[in-house]
Design goal:
This protein is of the alpha+beta class. Helices cover 36% and strands 24% of the residues. Bound molecules: methionine sulfoxide.
Length: 162
Amino acid sequence: MAEDLYISNGTKEERYAALLPQLEALLEGEDDLVACLANVAAALHDTFGFFWVGFYRIAGDELVLGPFQGPVACTRIRRGRGVCGTAWQEERTLIVPDVNEFPGHIACSSLSRSEIVVPVTDAQGQLWGVLDVDSRELNTFDNVDADGLARVCQMLRHKLNA
Ligand code: SME
């Protein structure tokens, strides 16, 4: 199944366009949140070769690590801290072309050089957590990623309260 999701060529736009309907099919009929988040992280990681892809969910005044693909990561991030905690606080997508230039960036790995964090909202419009994607290269992420990843997060909305 995972092999079928891997799209190794084409532009970034083409990869998102091919991946989104496949993810929709993968998530259809499955309400287990951990299973859905785990497969989404794996599909994004394999399709784009990102260094790290994963979810953090809001628990009190912290983000707590959820399903991910990539190296071991920080378990808890306080609101307003790092890129993830700032995206949560500001309730908006943050694109960081160079993590060393982001004040307060939390370096889970020195190999991560650019990053995008997208807020994840439930079906009632409540913020649930964030999707964090890291790259080994500088300047990896742009509005195509922001849009594609926001669509992925939207697909998860109805699973979040299940
Ligand atoms: N760099 C993130 C922390 C999470 S890890 O990169 C997986 C941040 O600054 O919020």
